[in-house]
Specification:
Chain B: It is a multi-pass membrane protein. Chain B: One of its GO terms (cellular component) is plasma membrane. The complex is a heterodimer of chains A (about 250) and B (about 325). Chain A has about 250 residues and is an alpha/beta fold. Helix content of chain A is about 40%, strand content about 15%. Chain A folds into 2 domains: about 10-120, Nitrogenase molybdenum iron protein domain (Rossmann fold), CATH 3.40.50.1980; about 140-250, Nitrogenase molybdenum iron protein domain (Rossmann fold, 3-Layer(aba) Sandwich), CATH 3.40.50.1980. Chain A has 12 helices and 11 strands. In chain A, helix 1 links the parallel strand 1 (about 10) and strand 2 (about 30). In chain A, helix 5 packs antiparallel against helix 6 (about 115-135) and helix 6 packs parallel to helix 12 (about 240-250). Chain A starts with 7 loop residues before the first strand and ends with a helix. With about 325 residues, chain B is mainly alpha-helical. Classes of the chains: A alpha/beta (about 250), B mainly alpha (about 325).
Chain lengths: ~250, ~325
């Protein structure tokens, strides 16, 4: 890309992360309000200084952006309005596997006119990935794991979550847990994975999350780990998630 | 007088309890299931003891509470439309429960949740009785019920929207539709004492309600103290519906459908209708909860959806008949 856009607005959590990582000084005008949420946002610390938006067309327009970064599933009505107003809107797909992350970094680098920074980041990522794969290969195989979060939601193992587990040398649990979606507690108990990874709690109380306090969990032999923001969005921080799992497994 | 109806309903409840224990996504065979229930061994034992057993017990408790409360309210108001869900008692109980959960009251002390739901239900019953009057005229009753339900629902949504938690929308569906999925013995122990005490109070009102069916003057001349009857009714309904709603969400129509179906079979005697409706309510909710698991096992179909599909047409029928009677 020839010229770097001067005013960039990101309106989605996942796009926020890459923009926060790669944008030059003053280039990033605004990110989505979720990017400051320490439970969901991998680079929440970087978002503290950047003003936030709530994804409304009028709000974004008033920021006078040259480039808007959005998700594939961002509100199409908002994006249509922005495009009609002559603003560039870019929807770079969220990576579905760890191997896709370096190219996603490079794609955002090109879009922001920060290709050199992106290349450095991508290369460092590939180096760290190679180191972690080496460590994972040394671990005993055959241990199963699954994600199981609020509402019994399993992220499914075909996407990034399964890839994180595999890179930590873990075998994704089978059946409905593998397919993903809301999985009944019964199914989880019968599948009996060696490790269950649940989400960190949000503020306030919810029945959805209270499911994870069900007494049956205390009776299960599975080890329980918390996921965390590193698992979200397929950013370079997924390697933090892999490394944390590896550390647990190496210690046991 | 023969108790064939009660025996039949009781047998139905026992069969439905067994069915509820046998059906679930784990796909255990009946023999395996009962063996696992008795031994408590392995994953199957956990499924039976920690997941299916509390669900079945709660289904029976909640259904009995709702059926019995419906029958008692209808007997007192002498109006077949009086139903905890329709007249806003369930909605207000939900509101109480949601406030307790969101303010941390429920976490701070064990009985916070059922007591808050009870308080909500209590407020709604008192309001309904004050508005609809002792004779419970159909129109005032339903209008007051709609207003209380709408207000309670709106405040429930508001409280949930103010919560910083991103799952608020799921919560609203639960509090409006109800569900027994993933309940545990914690919930059984929370609700059971209140349902049992409230239910016992309501069952003890049978003779007074029989007398009241002859009119207030006749009842008083037969020694029924109306103010005391009213107090017992209010506390009994609030306690049982409040506790049931606190753990299972807002399940509607049970208190409407069950007494309606059983009224003729008990010869329209309010006292007999109470016990029969408790059994019938337990049976209906257990069957609905089994159906929820059979129709869309993976989707957590809400109980209230099924109850409304069964109950709403019946309600329309009652409205139609009431209109005709009003001329």
């Amino acid at each position: 890309m020839a010229e770097a856009p001067a005013r960039v607005v990101s309106m989605n959590l996942c796009a926020d992360q890459y923009a926060l990582l790669l944008a030059g000084p003053g280039q990033l005008v605004s990110v989505s309000h979720v990017s400051r949420d320490t439970v969901a946002s991998p680079y929440a610390a970087l978002a503290a200084e950047v003003p936030v938006n709530h994804g409304g067309a009028e709000e974004i327009w008033l920021l006078r952006p040259d480039l808007v970064l959005a998700h594939e599933w961002s509100d199409t009505r908002v994006l249509a309005i922005l495009r009609r107003l002559g603003i560039d809107v870019l929807q770079i797909p969220v990576p579905e596997a760890i191997a896709e992350i370096p190219d996603t970094v490079r794609a955002y680098g090109d879009a922001l006119g920060q290709s050199a920074t992106a290349e450095l980041l991508a290369t460092a990522f590939e180096q760290r990935l190679a180191d972690l794969e080496f460590r994972a290969a040394a671990l005993p195989p055959g241990k199963t794991a699954t994600l199981y979060g609020a509402n019994g939601y399993s992220a499914g193992m075909t996407g990034m979550a399964g890839d994180i587990l595999r890179h930590a040398g873990l075998l994704p649990a089978g059946g409905a847990l593998f397919a993903g979606g809301s999985v009944p507690l019964e199914t989880l108990v019968m599948e009996a994975p060696d490790m269950i990874i649940t989400g960190a709690r949000y503020a306030g109380w919810s029945r959805s999350e209270a499911l994870l306090d069900h007494p049956v969990f205390d009776a299960l032999p599975a080890a329980r780990r918390l996921s965390g923001p590193a698992w979200a969005c397929g950013t370079p921080r997924v390697l933090d998630a892999v490394e944390a799992l590896l550390a647990v497994r190496e210690a046991s | 007088m023969s108790y064939r109806l009660e025996l039949l309903l009781g047998a139905g409840v026992i069969l439905a309890l067994a069915g509820s224990l046998l059906i679930g996504p784990a796909g255990l065979l009946p023999a395996e299931s009962f063996a696992a229930l008795l031994s408590g061994e392995g994953p199957a034992g956990l499924v039976m003891r920690e997941i299916r057993l509390p669900r079945a017990i709660l289904g029976a408790l909640v259904g009995a509470a709702l059926g019995l409360s419906g029958a008692a309210l209808q007997g007192y108001l002498r109006n077949p439309l009086a139903e905890p869900g329709l007249i806003g008692v369930t909605g207000a109980a939900s509101l109480g429960a949601v406030i307790a959960l969101q303010t941390g009251l429920a976490a701070a002390f064990t009985l916070g949740l059922p007591l808050a739901a009870l308080a909500g239900a209590l407020a709604a019953v008192l309001l309904i009785l004050a508005l609809a009057g002792p004779r419970g005229a159909a129109l005032t009753l339903i209008l007051a019920g709609i207003a209380i339900s709408a207000l309670a629902g709106a405040f429930t949504a508001l409280v949930l929207n103010l919560s910083p938690n991103p799952y608020a929308t799921y919560e609203m569906v639960f509090w409006m539709m109800g569900s027994l999925a993933n309940r545990s013995f914690t919930h059984v122990w929370l609700a059971a004492p209140f349902v049992v005490v409230g239910g016992a109070v309501l069952l003890s009102l049978g003779r007074s309600l029989d007398a009241l069916a002859l009119g207030e003057d006749a009842a008083e001349s037969m020694g029924v103290r109306l103010s005391r009857l009213r107090l017992a009714l209010v506390l009994g309904v609030a306690s049982s519906v409040g506790a049931a709603t606190a753990v299972a969400g807002g399940i509607g129509f049970v208190g409407l459908v069950v007494p309606h179906l059983l009224r003729r079979a008990v010869g329209s005697r309010p006292s007999r209708l109470l016990g029969a409706s408790a059994l019938g309510g337990a049976l209906l909710v257990l069957l609905a909860d089994i159906a929820v698991r059979l129709i869309l096992p993976e989707k957590d179909l809400k109980l209230g959806v099924l109850m409304a599909i069964i109950g709403a047409p019946l309600f329309l029928h009652l409205v139609y008949r009431t209109r005709r009677e009003l001329g």
